[in-house]
Amino acid sequence: RWVLSLECKGSRNFMSALRRAVEVDFKDKDKHKSQGLYLLTTGIPDQETQTISAYVAEACGGFDLQLHVCLFSVTKGTDSSGVIPARYSNPRETANAFKEIVQAANGRFHWFGEAGIFESDDITSIVSEMEKAKNYSQKCAFLVESLKQRS
Questions:
Q1: Per residue in 91-145, pLDDT tens?
Q2: Which structural domain, as residue segments, surrounds residue 117?
Q3: Which tens digits make up the pLDDT trace of 55-96?
Q4: Distance (Å, rounded) from C-alpha 99 to C-alpha 69?
Q5: Alpha helix (H) residue ranges in 7-110
Q6: Looking at the DSSP assignment, which residues form a beta bridge with residue 109?
Q7: Strands 65-73, 116-120: pairing kind
Q8: CB–CB of 117/75 below 8 Å?
Q9: What is the dihedral of CA 124, 128, 133, 135, to 10 degrees?
């Protein structure tokens, strides 16, 4: 509910926000079995990916905290805020950086834009399960067919 009262503002200082969330907002983290932190973003953090990944691995490793990232790629020319990020990267580099950070946090990565979904760990997992089910079904059908031929 408190999220609804928030306003979009700030910078891409990911480390500052993450430290705030982990060290202040999750002060009662030992009382909970698992927790998730969701980052909704449109660009790369100011800090280097390796630095963030190391911190995230350490912060999330002490208890069951997962960092999930939802990256929204904005079409060029639609940024009305006029804020120029301190660090620039193209969409693919940004996605790769967040995938690395998410892996360090045992989280999930989702990348989408106005055109639709570019990449999603959840969808990849579902497709993988469907492929396994299809392969299993084909093996079962082959086994049934071979049993029929023996009879």
A1: 889 999 999 999 998 899 999 988 889 999 999 999 999 999 999 999 999 999 9
A2: 2-121
A3: 988 888 766 788 899 999 876 544 445 555 556 778 889 999
A4: 8
A5: 14-19, 49-61, 91-104
A6: 69
A7: unpaired
A8: no
A9: 140
* Domain-located, residue 31: yes
- Residue 79 located in a structural domain: yes
Question: Which residues make beta-bridge pairs with 73?
Answer: 113
pTM higher than 0.85, yes or no? no
What's CA 125's distance to the chain center, in Å? 13
Q: For the chain, what is the domain count?
A: 1
- Are the C-beta atoms of residues 50 and 87 closer than 8 Å to each other? no
Integer Cα distance of 26 and 18 in angstroms = 11
Q: Tell me how far apart the 2 most distant CA atoms of the chain are, in Å.
A: 75
Q: Quote the tokens at residue 74.
A: 């904005």
> Residue 65 forms beta bridges with which residues?
35
Q: Which helix (H) or strand (E) element contains residue 36? A: strand 35-41
Query: What is the distance between the alpha carbons of residues 98 and 91, in angstroms, rounded to a whole number?
Result: 11
Indicate whether 135 belongs to any domain.
no
21 is a domain residue: yes
